[in-house]
Amino acid sequence: MLKQLMVNVALFFLLLCRASCPSVSGAEPDTVYVRDATGLIREQYRPLARYLTFVPASIPTVGNEMEIITNGLHYRELLTADYNAAKDYIELETMLFASDTTGHFFKELLLQKAGEGVTVRYTHDNVANLFDNIIDGRSFFNGFYSDMRKRGVDMRNFRPLGRFCDGLYPITSWNHRKISIVDGKVAYVGGMNINDGSMGAWEDTHIRIKGPAVMSLRAMFLQNWNMLSTSKSGKIPLQLVRSEEAASGEGAVFQLFADGPDVPANSVQDALVWTLENASRYVYIATPYFMPTKRVVKAMKKAAERGLDVRLLIARDADVEFASPVNHSYYKTCVRSGVRIFERVDRFVHSKVFIADDYMIYIGSSNLDKQSLLKLYEAGAMIYDEHTATLNARKYLEDLKGTEEVTETTFAGWSAGERFKQKVFRPLSFWM
Predict the structure, then answer these.
(1) In DSSP terms, which residues pair with 382 in a beta bridge?
(2) Checking DSSP bridges between strand 309-315 and strand 340-344, what pairing results, if any?
(3) Are residues 112 and 197 both part of a single domain?
(4) What angle do CA 34, 373, 129 make, to 5 degrees?
(5) 325 assigned to some structural domain
(6) What does the pLDDT read at residue 170?
(7) How many domains does the chain have?
(8) Which H/E stretch holds residue 100?
């Protein structure tokens, strides 16, 4: 009797302590239960949703507020406001944090927040940023990034320069994800970097999220963050668990999912191929680079040949000059199978989007090239919702009015130099 009383008292104080003490991660609990919204998705698309649920972070959720952002200046305004409002932490994982005007602005903002006591965590891919500086003619090794660490930003290098030969971080496996989380309340994912291009001149697409999906995206961020930790104390525990209670309600169903070496499949490629094989009316695609795998080309051709309206939006001139002839080298086989390709001539298209049948839309960081589809670390969202998909399909068609369609006349107009570049550069597409 006395023994049982002592056990009960001990349990009481243990529970009291757990209730009063903060978790290791600060404001957020160590365990988050996620209500699965797969049952709210149209039956036709449930197999895709189930396939993409590799980990609890990819469980479809409902009840999210989201804004699809297609204007870089608006994205800059929103992100600035959310960073300014941060009280606890800011977490950022992005391929490019450029040392340009936009990069300097956000660097100073993050340093300001760090000075106010906000924890700023930044996952930095130093190889990608090094190459970006070289290509754009900016100076490098000038202390732009090391200064952030010295002044209070908790920065972890995704791939230290001295580890090129490390099998875990091959040079061609850049971290191409674009993720930001503020206080566990608001999050961003999509195609926009922290640079002048995404936040100004380019045509790009991103998503701002509030709701249960924020913790899903944070779990994705922390997977890399914890992997890069050199000590147990540097890891932040966050476990997502599928709730026994299924989700209910109305509105868009939101599914976040990752791609890359840390995922047991080529998830974006698989999702696009599945969509091309199962859509009944159309699949609209936007991408900055068109260097697809044989599997994607085959799926696009077969879909068009069976009567599906398959369209591709891409800029005529890529931001990297030698990428354009490689993009062009894939045109003939697709156009002659019925795929319609539209080139934007006034600005660079950096959006990574595909939409199907007025119901499903993918927005993320994955380009339609071999690197993104097979090797890079990527992140994006599948949105299952008639209203969202329909609005964005209309916008897509509206955007095509400012483009030129690729036809046999286009091929006949290619110069000998253009044809030569296509043959020379295409074999190198796997490393672009």
Answers:
(1) 255, 362
(2) parallel
(3) yes
(4) 90
(5) yes
(6) 54
(7) 2
(8) none
